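Quick review question:
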């Protein structure tokens, strides 16, 4: 890579590449010892040589990826050291706009397939560098930069993948969008975006097909260098604290066995691939003297990073950091004592480059044990303790094995940890650090007139710089094989359960098991409000207790919702501002003394309200006057339903099953004040309230009551809401756009 002065420097990618060691003969790895070992440098050489000998590689052939073509699971699990399985690889190669997938049998030394494939392969480093050049070679871009006071030599351009929004005019193109930054004079390349300007380049034609200029935005002046000397120039550094170190003076407890790492109760195979980064395979747990399988493979499958800014320069930023850029491709060397404890073991990763030749990333993975000062388990017995009889205190310190890697993809640094615990659990932790992606804005502070508009889709993090809202979705592929491959999947839901009337306890949760019949039905939305444990197990095997072995996927932070609150009427009412009963219940659904000062109360009908609640109301306004007056015949069961006159249909036989009219009517009793069926009594109504004929609340402590006269319809929205939730849960029906029900002006 060159750094000539008039050529735009590709700073970010330079940093990555220069830190790596080119693959040399002296650095060649030993022969693979396990069938799942990563392709070695020698093998990558061999793959290229085989394709060359087959005449498949022209002068411009580029390797988007070269992956180990793993032998079948059954063959791998049956493999024992000494036996050999064929080594095979899959290479994705492009040349002159066509993409081929080559299958290579390394053991036989030949190519076994060469197939044209469709779709877009992963980005090449050369394509990113080329795209920046294409953007700056476009006269429209040069002019737009000149308008802003920059020459091409004074900027650094960053080619970005541009998402796929199904636009017809983009079909079949291989697009990158290229915004630029003022070239930094210090370490931070992301601090001075030249906002409102980007080129769209098509890698297939090698040209900028468009330059978008939405107007000038001032370029922030501050450099925001991130190295320590640069930070110190902006302000005094905090004093260093006394060291708190992790150490392991006796050496670690990690050993190798049959090509796998062994630690405590765990063993697993480890390699790094260009797309997913670290790949763990054949993860097994020791149970006594027996190794039991837990997972055949675990790795990152994608990181999706959509930005939430509709601006022309931002809406398309929706990166696939693994599939487009390559998590393994951008693994960065880990630093001893900073990224990993000083005593960690470090592993080198070998990746294929654009030309198919290997490159080594030293210290790409680190592995270490740690005890962070927490107990694994402890108990101190309080019962039976006396000065004469000290009951035992027991416990052991917790120790963990961490497998860590970090990929620096542009401004982001992602860390992925697989943490093995001694209790048989594995925790996958992801970390996101690095430098914020920033958008240039005019606002220097939140007090500026432009600030409200500038920060509608992000946060002002420095004068003239907004960090737009965005998310990072990390997807993992977990091929769990719990005690073999014959596994099934079950959800264990915690379901709220109301207890019968006589029980002093109102509600609790019970566990409901459901086994989805097909993969589609097994898709599970993780929701704090309706927790589920995702259980993978082997129903063919039994423990001494008659349980089936299994592993549970436990999404962290999911079990935070108070499970019973909404189900317990007392809890539901406590502290609310608005108490609205809408139950159609024939008996009171809450107690009068639950009504607190300041509450606003409304109802569906009288009977769901306790009689004594009438005494709690300071202000009563009724909804209006029931218009429908009916003669009280047999079939108009007055006061039986909630309407002033409820018509009940049915045969004589069916009518007999309906409860008799309550001799003691509900809310308001038979007092003349509330005997307003039909005529509304003497309470003011809503029209009186809005025309000022009566007063509403005059102090915060007053309890106000809006009395439904039978047609408020709360029960419909209440039941409707429940039906909707059930439909969503059971995936029935289909979503109708809300806009269909909205209109600006009544017809
Ligand atoms: Cu982020």
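Suggested answer, residue by residue:
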């Amino acid at each position: 890579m060159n750094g000539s002065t008039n050529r735009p420097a590709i700073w970010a990618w330079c940093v990555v590449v220069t830190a790596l060691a080119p693959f040399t003969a002296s650095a060649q790895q030993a022969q693979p010892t396990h069938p799942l070992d990563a392709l070695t440098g020698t093998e990558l050489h061999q793959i290229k040589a085989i394709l060359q000998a087959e005449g498949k590689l022209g002068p411009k052939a580029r390797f988007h990826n070269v992956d180990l073509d793993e032998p079948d699971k059954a063959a791998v699990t049956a493999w024992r050291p000494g036996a050999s399985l064929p080594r095979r690889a899959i290479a994705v190669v492009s040349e002159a706009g066509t993409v081929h997938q080559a299958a290579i049998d390394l053991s036989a030394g030949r190519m076994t397939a060469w197939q044209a494939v469709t779709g877009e392969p992963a980005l090449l480093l050369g394509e990113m560098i080329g795209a920046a050049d294409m953007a700056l070679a476009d006269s429209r871009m040069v002019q737009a930069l000149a308008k802003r006071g920059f020459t091409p030599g004074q900027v650094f351009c960053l080619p970005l993948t541009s998402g796929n929004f199904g636009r017809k005019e983009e079909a079949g193109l291989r697009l990158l969008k290229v915004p630029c930054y003022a070239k930094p004079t210090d370490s931070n390349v992301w601090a001075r975006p030249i906002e409102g300007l980007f080129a769209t380049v098509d890698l297939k034609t090698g040209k900028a097909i468009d330059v978008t200029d939405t107007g000038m935005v001032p370029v922030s002046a501050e450099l925001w260098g991130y190295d320590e000397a640069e930070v110190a120039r902006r302000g005094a550094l905090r004093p260093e604290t006394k060291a708190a170190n992790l150490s392991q003076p006796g050496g670690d407890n990690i050993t190798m066995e049959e090509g796998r790492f062994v630690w405590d109760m765990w063993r697993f195979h480890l390699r790094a691939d260009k797309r997913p980064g670290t790949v763990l395979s054949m993860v097994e747990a020791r149970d006594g003297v027996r190794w039991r399988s837990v997972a055949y493979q675990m790795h990152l499958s994608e990181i999706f990073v959509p930005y939430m800014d509709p601006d022309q320069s931002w809406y398309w930023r929706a990166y696939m950091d693994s599939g487009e850029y390559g998590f393994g491709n951008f693994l960065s060397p880990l630093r001893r004592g900073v990224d990993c404890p000083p005593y960690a073991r470090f592993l080198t990763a070998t990746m294929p480059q654009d030309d198919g030749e290997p490159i080594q990333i030293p210290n790409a993975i680190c592995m270490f044990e740690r005890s962070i000062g927490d107990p694994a388990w402890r108990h101190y017995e309080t019962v039976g303790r006396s000065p004469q009889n000290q009951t035992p205190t027991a416990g052991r310190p917790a120790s963990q094995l961490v497998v860590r890697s970090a990929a620096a993809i542009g401004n982001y640094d992602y860390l992925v940890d697989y943490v093995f615990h001694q209790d048989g659990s594995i925790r996958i932790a992801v970390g996101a650090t690095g430098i914020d992606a920033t958008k240039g804005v005019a606002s220097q502070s939140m007090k500026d007139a432009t600030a409200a508009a500038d920060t509608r889709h992000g946060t002002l993090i420095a004068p003239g710089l907004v960090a737009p809202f965005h998310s990072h979705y990390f997807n993992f592929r977990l091929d769990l094989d719990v005690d073999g491959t014959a596994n099934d999947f079950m959800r264990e839901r915690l379901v709220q359960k109301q207890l019968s009337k006589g029980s002093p306890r109102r509600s609790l949760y019970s566990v409901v098991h459901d086994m989805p019949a097909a993969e589609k039905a097994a898709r599970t939305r993780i929701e704090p409000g309706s927790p589920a444990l995702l259980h993978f197990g082997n129903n063919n095997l039994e423990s001494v207790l008659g349980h089936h072995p299994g592993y549970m996927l436990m999404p962290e932070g999911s079990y935070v919702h108070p499970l019973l609150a909404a189900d317990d009427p007392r809890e539901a009412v406590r502290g609310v501002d608005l108490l609205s009963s809408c139950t159609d219940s024939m008996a009171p659904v809450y107690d009068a003394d639950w009504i607190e000062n300041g509450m606003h109360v409304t109802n569906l009908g009288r009977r769901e309200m306790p009689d004594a609640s009438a005494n709690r109301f300071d202000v009563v306004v009724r909804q209006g006057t029931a218009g429908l007056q009916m003669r009280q015949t047999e079939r108009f069961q007055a006061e039986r339903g909630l309407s002033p006159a409820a018509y009940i249909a049915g045969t004589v036989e069916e009518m007999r099953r309906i409860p008799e009219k309550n001799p003691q009517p509900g809310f308001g009793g038979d007092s003349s004040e509330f005997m307003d069926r039909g005529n509304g009594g003497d309470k003011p109504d809503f029209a009186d309230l809005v025309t000022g004929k009566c007063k509403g609340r005059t102090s915060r402590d007053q309890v106000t009551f809006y009395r439904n006269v039978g047609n408020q319809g709360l029960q419909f929205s209440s039941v409707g809401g429940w039906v909707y939730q059930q439909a969503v849960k059971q995936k029935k029906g289909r979503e109708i756009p809300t806009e269909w029900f909205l209109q600006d002006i009544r017809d």
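Why it works: The CA atoms of residues 439 and 698 lie 49 Å apart. Residues 1-28, 627-632, 638-645, 662-680 have pLDDT under 50 and may be disordered.
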